[in-house]
C-alpha cells in the first residue's frame, strides 16, 4: 500500500556508535584519549544511556577499552598489532576492490571520479582532516560497490581500530 513503506529507523545508540566509529576511523580520537560518558552525552545532546551502550559496543569490538571511573579509553596499538591489522586490512580491501571492479557502472564511475577529484583538492589544500575524510569516502564507496556487507563491516572495524 502506498505510504506504508518502512522507513529506516536508526536507534540513538547506533547513531552515537556511528559517530564515535567515524571519529576513531579518521584519527580524531587518539590512542590514550579518555572518553567520559557524561561529557560525550553533553556534547551530543543525548542522555548517558545510549552513549554508554555505544561505548560498550566499541569495547566489544576492541575499538575501545574500559578505563577507571566510568570512562573509556582509545587503546594504544603496538607495532606488532599495527602490522597485523594492516596485513589483514590490505587483504580484505583487495578482496573488496576485486569484487567491486566488475560492478562499476557509468554512474558509479562518475561518482568515483567526483570523489577522486575531492581527494585531489584535499591533497592540494594540505589540510590533513580533509585528506583523511576524502580518502575514506573514496575507498569506502568502492567497498560499498562490492555488495558484500560482511566484508564492508570487517574493513570498517579494522579502520576504526587503527584510526
Your description of this structure?
The chain is mainly α. The protein folds into 2 domains: 12-73, Arc Repressor Mutant, subunit A (Orthogonal Bundle), CATH 1.10.10; 79-162, Four Helix Bundle (Hemerythrin (Met), subunit A) (Up-down Bundle), CATH 1.20.120.530. Helices cover 67% and strands 6% of the residues. The protein has 7 helices and 3 strands, in the order αβααββαααα. It has helices at 12-25, 37-44, 48-60, 79-101, 106-125, 128-145, 149-162; strands at residues 34-36, 65-67, 71-73. The chain has a 3-stranded antiparallel beta sheet with strand order 1-3-2. α1 packs across α7 (149-162), α4 packs antiparallel against α7 and α5 runs antiparallel to α6. The protein starts with 11 loop residues before the first helix and ends with a helix. The model is unreliable at 1-7 (pLDDT under 50).
